[in-house]
Amino acid sequence: MLSNLVAGGDRLLVLALILPVASLMLAFVLGGRHAERIALATLPIGLAVAVAIAAAVLHGDAPLHTDLGGWAPPLGVALRADGLSAIMLLTTAVVMVAVGLFARADFQVPPGTTESRAPFAFWTLLLALWAALNAVFLGEDLFNLYVALELLTFAAIPLVCLDGRAQTLAAALRYLVFALLGSVLYLLGAALLYGAYGTLDIGQLAARIGGDPLEPAALIAAALMTAGLLAKTALFPVHLWLPPAHAGAPAAASALLSALAVKASFFLILRIWFDVMPELLAQMAAQVLAALGAAAILFGGVLALRQARLKMLIAYSTIAQIGYLFLIFPLVASPETAPLAELRNAPGAWTGGALQLVSHACAKAAMFMAAGLIAASLGHDRIRDLGGIGRALPMTLFAFGIAGMSLMGLPPSGGFMAKWLLLLAAMQCGQWWWMLVILAGGLLTGAYLYRVLATALSTQGPSPVLVKPVDRSREWVVLGLALISVLLGLVPLSSFSLIQIGRDVSGIGVGLP
Amino acid sequence: MSSVTLFGLCGAALVGLGLYGLIVLPGALRRIIAFNLLGSGVFLLFGVIARRGGGVIAGTGSDPVPQALIITGLVVAFAATALAVALLRRLLQETGRDDWDEDERSDR
Amino acid sequence: MSAALIVDLGLTLLILGLGVWTVAARSNNGAVVGYIAYGLLVALVWVRLAAVDVALTEAAIGSGLTGLLLLGVATRLPRSARLTRPPTGLGTRLLAGFLSAAVAGGLAAVVLLLPDPAPTLAPSVAANLPATGLGNPVTGVLIAFRAIDTLLESVVLVFAIIGVWSLAPKDGWGERPGWLRPAPLGSALTLLAQLLPPIGILVGIHLFWTGATAPGGAFQGGAVLAAMWVLAMIAGLARPPAVSRRWLRLMLVAGPALFLTVGIAGIWLAGAFLAYPVAYAKPLILVIEAALTLSIAAALGLLLAGPPEHPSAAERQP
Amino acid sequence: MDIADFLLAAAVFVLATVALGLTRILRGPSDVDRMMAAQLLGTGGVAALLLLGVATDMNAITDLALVLALLAAFASVALVADARRPEPEPVPDDAHPEGKTRT
Amino acid sequence: MTLALTLFTLIAISLGAIFFLAGTVGLLRFPDTLTRLHALTKADNLGLGLIVLGLLPQVDWPVGGLKLIAVWLVVLLAGATVGQLMAKAARSDAWNGSTDLEPPR
C-alpha cells in the first residue's frame, strides 16, 4: 500500500493543490450554511492528503515531483515535495483542522438568515488560505510561487478585518501595503533571475547558478527577493504591520495568520538561500539574517513584556519567535557545522529550525485561540484584569501555559528540542553569541508569560465575572493543539529523518539529549 | 545605447521612484499609486528581458514566457489595487481618515 | 542616434516625467490623472518592446480600469486630505531617497550587465506550440505550458472578490455593490452608455477569439467587457447584481472551475494534470478561454463595483 | 519616401504634439484641465497607433488602438461622472486637522 | 494603388496632424478652462477623423476599414460626451475643491 502511495505521489501533490481550490469554489457558489459544511468536510480529506504525502516521501525516501501539463521545466511548471515541504503541509493541515473545529462556534450563520458576511468570508478564506499555503509549500517555479504568495496575501488580508472595526481596517490596509511591496520585490528578483539564467525552476536555477561565475543579476535578485519576503515574514525591522494585524483579527483568524501565514514567506527565504543560491553567497547572507533574527528575538520579547493586552502580547511574541527561525542560516550554512559526511544526516540546526517552525505553529495557534476564549468569556483581554481567570477557565489556562512552555523552550516540549538543537549547533560551530541570544530570548519569553500566568493564577480577589460561558469542546481543541507542540519534544529525534529527505543539508550531529 | 537598454533603465528608475513614493508619501491613496508605479517598473524590466530574449533568436519579437507572466502580474496588481482601494474607502467611511498611521495614533 | 532611439528617448522622458508628477503632485486628483496618462504611454512602450499582448492588457487594465478605481477614491477623500499634508520628515526622505536610488542604481547596473546573448525560452515555445493548436505563443504559455499560473491567477480574482465583499458594512451583506450607484445624469452619458457597449462587446469578443492566433485573449477581452459593464452601471442603465445571487457566483467561478475540470480530466485523458489530449487541444482551450473571459469580465467589473451595501447607505455615506 | 515612412513620421509628429500638451498636467490649474491633457494624449495615442498599425501592417496594433480608445473614453467618463458627486462631509471626530502631525 | 489615393492619404493625414497641433496649442494657450475645452474637443476629433479618413484607402476591406471607423466612432462619441460633462464639471463647484488655486491649509 505504501509503495502505491509513492507511485501515485505526483497525483497526491496535484490533489493537495486543487482540493482546497475546488472546495473553495463550491463553498463560494453554494454559500450560506453550506460554506461551513464544505470547509469542515474538507478538513479531514486535506489532513489525509497531507499525511499521505508525508508517508510517501518518508517511505520512498525521496522527494515527490511532478511536471504539470506534462511540460517539463523550464517551459513548464513543476511541483515538488521534499521532507520539509511534507512537514509544512502536515503542520498546515493539523492547524487548519484545529482552527476549523474551534471556529465553528464563532462563525455560524445566525438563525433566520440564509447567509451572513463573517461566516461566509471566514470559511471561504480558510480554504483560500489553505490553497495558498499548499501552493507555496509545493511550488518549484519562482513565478508560480509568486502567484502562490499573492493568493496568500488575498486570503490573509480580509481575515484581519473580519470584524469590520476601524482599527482592524487600518491594520489590514497597512498589512496589505507591506505584503504587496514584498511580493513585487520578490517578483522583480524572479524576473532578474529569468533574465540571467533563462529559467524559473528552482532546481535548474541552482544548477545554472552553481555552474557559472555569479551573474550580478543573481546577487541583486537574491537581495530583492529576501527583502521582499522579510517584509512578509515581519522580521525586525519590517515587523510593524504584524502586531495590529494579528492581534486585531478574530482569534481563529489570528491563529491561522500567526501560525501559518508568516511561515510561508519564511519557507521561501529558506528555499532561496539553501536551494537556489550558491553556498558561498549564502554564508555571507546568513550572518545578516541571523543578526536581524537576534534583534527580533530581543526586541519582540521586550515589547511583548510591555503590552497591556493579551492578544498584543501574543502577537509580539510571534515577532520574537520568528527571530529564532533566522538563526538557522549561519548554523546550517557554516562549513564548520558539517565537517564529516556521516554527521550530515544526524539532527542538527536544520532539524531544530524545522521543529521551531512546527512547534511554534501549534503553540501559537493554541495561544491565540486560548486568548480568544478568555477574551470571549471576560469580554476583554486586558492582562491587568485577568486575575482569577485560572479558576474560571482552568483548562484554557492550562493549554495556554503548556503552549507557552513550548515557546519558552522548557523541556520536554517541541520548542525545547528546537532551541536545544539550535544551541548545540551554535556551540559546535563556535558561534557562541547566538547561544546568548537564544538563552536571553528564552528568559524574556518566560518573563512575559509569567506576567500573564501570575495574574491569571492569582488567588486574591473575587472570581472574575464571565460574560459568556466557555464551550468545553473548544477548550479541548486548544488543549489538543498545545499538547501537540509539547509532545513533539518527546518524539525520538531519529524519527525526524523526514525533515532531511530531499536536501543535502549540512547538519551537525549532536548527541541525543 | 539601444532602445531596449533605454527602457530597461527607465524601468529601473521607475522602481526607485515607486519605492520612494511608497515610503515617503502621506496618505494611503498616494502610496497605492506609488505601488502601481513600482509594479509597472518591475513589469517594464521584465518586458526588457523578454525583448532581449526575443531579439536574440528570432530577430524580432519578444520571448512569450515573460510576456505571459507580465499579463498575469498586471491582472494580479489590479486585483491588489482593488482590494487596497476597498479597504481605504471603508476606512474613510468609518473614520474619515485616509491613512493607517493616523488611526494608530488615535489608539493611544 | 537613430530616429527610433530619439522617439524612445522622448517616450522614456515623458514616462519618467509623469511618474515624478504622480509622486510629487499636490492634488490627489492630479496625481491620478497623471497616472492615467502614464498608463497610456506605458502601453505605447509595450508596442515598442514588441509585446502587443501586454500592451493590450496594459491599455485595458493598467490605465483604464485602475484609473477608475483610483479616481473613485480620490474624489471621495475629504477636503483636508486633498492637499499635501505636512511632509514626511527630512531624515526619512533622505533615507528613502538613498535607498531608492541604491535600488534603482543596482537595477540599472543589472540591466547593463545582463548576459549576452540573452537566455530565452522563445525557441522552446515555438517548437512546442503546434501541440496546442494555437498560433499565439503568449496564449500558448498562458493556457498550456504554464496553465497552472493562469488557473491560480483566475482563482486570485475569486479571492479578491471574497476579500472586497467581506468589507461590506453593517447590513450590507446580500445587497448590491455600492460604489457605482449612479448619480442623476444628463442624457449625454446615457447615450454614450447605450452606444459604446455594443461596440465594446464586439471588441471584447473579438479579442478573446483572436487571442488563439494573434495578440489578445481572455484577460484583454474580459477587461474590455468589464469596462463596458461598468460604464452601463455608472450611467444607471444596469444595476450591479446583489452578491447573494447564485448565477453571479457561478459566473465568477465558471472559468477557473472549467479550467480545473479539464485539467483534472487531463490526468486520465492526456497523462498529466492540466495536459490536453492533442486531438482536442484547440477546442478545449477555446472553451476554457471563453469561460475565463466571462469570469474575468465579471470579476473585474465587480471589483470596480465594490462591497455590497444596504440601499440606505447611499444617504448615510459618501 | 514611401508611404509607410510618411505614416510613421506622422505618428511621431502627432505623439510629439500631444506630449507637448501634457505640460497642462503640470500647470493645471484645475483637474478638468489635466484630464483634458490626458484625453488629448489618449486621442493622439490612438491616432499614432492607427498610423503605426497601417505602416507596419500589424492588425494587432489597430486592435490596441481600439482598446485604448474604448478605455480612454471610459476613464474620462468615469472621472467626470464621479466628480459631480457632492463632497463627503468631514467626520466629526476628525475635527482638529490643524493639530495633525505625522509620526 | 493610384496616385490620387496616395495623394489623398498624404493630404488628409497632414491636415489631421495639423489639427492635433492646433488642439495642443489651444490647450496650452487659451485663457480659461472652457475655451480650452472647446478648442480641444473640436481639434482632436477632427484630427483623428482626418487621419482615419486618410488611412482608409491604405487598409484591407472590410475588416481593417471597419475597425478604423469603429475607432473614430468611439472617440467621437466619447469625446462629445466627455466634453459636455467636463464643461458641466468646470462650471460647477464640484471640482473647485481640487484646483491648485485653493490656498493650502
TrEMBL record, chain B:
It is found in: Cell membrane. The chain crosses the membrane at residues 6-25, 32-49, 69-88. GO terms for cellular component: plasma membrane. It comes from the Bacteria. InterPro entries: CPA3_antiporter_subunitC, NUOK/Mnh_C1-like. Keywords: Cell membrane, Membrane, Transmembrane, Transmembrane helix. It is a multi-pass membrane protein. Belongs to the CPA3 antiporters (TC 2.A.63) subunit C family. PANTHER family: ANTIPORTER SUBUNIT MNHC2-RELATED. This is Multisubunit sodium/proton antiporter MrpC subunit. It comes from Thiobaca trueperi.
From TrEMBL, chain C:
The chain crosses the membrane at residues 6-25, 32-49, 55-74, 94-114, 143-168, 189-212, 218-238, 250-278, 284-306. Residues 13-79 form the MrpA C-terminal/MbhD domain. Residues 190-297 form the Na+/H+ antiporter MnhB subunit-related protein domain. It is a multi-pass membrane protein. GO terms for cellular component: plasma membrane. Keywords: Cell membrane, Membrane, Transmembrane, Transmembrane helix. Its main location: membrane. InterPro entries: CPA3_antiporter_subunitB, MnhB, MrpA_C/MbhD. It is found in: Cell membrane. Belongs to the CPA3 antiporters (TC 2.A.63) subunit B family. PANTHER family: NA(+)/H(+) ANTIPORTER SUBUNIT B, NA(+)_H(+) ANTIPORTER SUBUNIT B. This is Multisubunit sodium/proton antiporter MrpB subunit. It comes from Thiobaca trueperi.
From TrEMBL, chain D:
Keywords: Cell membrane, Membrane, Transmembrane, Transmembrane helix, Transport. The chain crosses the membrane at residues 6-26, 38-55, 61-81. InterPro entries: MrpF/PhaF-like. GO terms for molecular function: sodium:proton antiporter activity. It is a multi-pass membrane protein. Its main location: membrane. Pfam families: MrpF_PhaF. One of its GO terms (cellular component) is plasma membrane. The keyword Aminoacyl-tRNA synthetase does not apply. It comes from the Bacteria. It is found in: Cell membrane. Belongs to the CPA3 antiporters (TC 2.A.63) subunit F family. This is Multisubunit sodium/proton antiporter MrpF subunit. It comes from Thiobaca trueperi.
UniProtKB/TrEMBL annotation, chain E:
The keyword Protease does not apply. The keyword Transmembrane helix applies. One of its GO terms (molecular function) is sodium:proton antiporter activity. PANTHER family: ANTIPORTER SUBUNIT MNHG2-RELATED. Keywords: Membrane, Transmembrane, Transmembrane helix. It comes from the Bacteria. The chain crosses the membrane at residues 6-28, 69-87. It comes from Thiobaca trueperi. Coiled coil: none annotated. This is Multisubunit sodium/proton antiporter MrpG subunit. Pfam families: PhaG_MnhG_YufB.
